[in-house]
């Protein structure tokens, strides 16, 4: 009872948090003079903090996660019932929800075949890196071990995934990093590196140039986000993905699509890569898979990749010798099954498309009103507005002023995001990713708050 009683004493909760909790992505010096924010309840798109303030959450839990919104009793019940029956067994054995969710997931991903469970996006991506390295040893005589990644993309917070961080500030102070991870140029046309007509194809050709420089026989895989998330909500330009796939096939390079953010409807399709007709070898996902109701991530592969790990059953080193302890928790796939049912039954992908168009239209209208907005872009309910000090030169707005816009929206009761401490000099994009259940009124409230905030900060 002591724990339950403590939950009702919010002053005590705040002090316990201040004294003992190490928060993510936060400089704690501020808590010497201000209270940490404690979120205590959520329903739909709304959350309430320990002081009773209500917010409209336009970033789905702060990190693009709560796709179907807060307070879903059916997901909580599915997890509860599963945990009572069977909560955990190591992933060397199967489980009922694990098998059923894998079947349902693969049905949404033509061409893919196998699901490997773990518990975070970082871990899901690490699994791919290990698979690529093991394939290099077993199939290519130790060659084709390098992994290419893109400038401004992000793939996780472990040392291995930070080695593929295209966001230098996130990776700063955590090196040295393991070898064999090589950067390719970004594809943000607004910040284009080449003055050409077919920019998308040219940006993809830059990947081929890196491959030729490194040696095609040394490159095993290319990892890309379908739409770059924390690096500025970058939508690939026309022709980019078609050329990328052509290059990967030409040089026998495995294509790894990181759907940790875009997966499960966020970009207006079940998966972002499906908007571009891409046929990947690996797809990783996490955040929206269970909408934050349980920890789960998935590394999905083709049968061709899977078969490479069972070619020689007599060799004790031939299989994928990996484990994720909490990949054996049944709560993740149980929550994911119900999460997917909700997306289907409530037509949330269709709603995401419609509300995404409305939000993009509202942001475009704001760009006409506020010269501080240099560009708006996005797919589905995953959108960004890049702020600039000067439209002619595209000089980025000061990061501190961008964060003031975020704070002003918060003061109005609307939580938005922004790139911060990620890409040096370019932490100037406001980020929106409300739950897929957003209504037209929700969208208008979000963009209305941004309108007011821009006026307060920039005039």
UniProtKB/TrEMBL annotation:
<protein>
    <submittedName>
        <fullName>Taurine--pyruvate aminotransferase</fullName>
        <ecNumber>2.6.1.77</ecNumber>
    </submittedName>
</protein>
<comment type="similarity">
    <text>Belongs to the class-III pyridoxal-phosphate-dependent aminotransferase family.</text>
</comment>
<dbReference type="GO" id="GO:0030170">
    <property type="term" value="F:pyridoxal phosphate binding"/>
</dbReference>
<dbReference type="InterPro" id="IPR015424">
    <property type="entry name" value="PyrdxlP-dep_Trfase"/>
</dbReference>
<dbReference type="InterPro" id="IPR015422">
    <property type="entry name" value="PyrdxlP-dep_Trfase_small"/>
</dbReference>
<dbReference type="InterPro" id="IPR049704">
    <property type="entry name" value="Aminotrans_3_PPA_site"/>
</dbReference>
<keyword id="KW-0808">Transferase</keyword>
<dbReference type="GO" id="GO:0031299">
    <property type="term" value="F:taurine-pyruvate aminotransferase activity"/>
</dbReference>
<dbReference type="Pfam" id="PF00202">
    <property type="entry name" value="Aminotran_3"/>
</dbReference>
<dbReference type="InterPro" id="IPR005814">
    <property type="entry name" value="Aminotrans_3"/>
</dbReference>
<keyword id="KW-0670">Pyruvate</keyword>
<keyword id="KW-0032">Aminotransferase</keyword>
<keyword id="KW-0663">Pyridoxal phosphate</keyword>
<dbReference type="InterPro" id="IPR015421">
    <property type="entry name" value="PyrdxlP-dep_Trfase_major"/>
</dbReference>
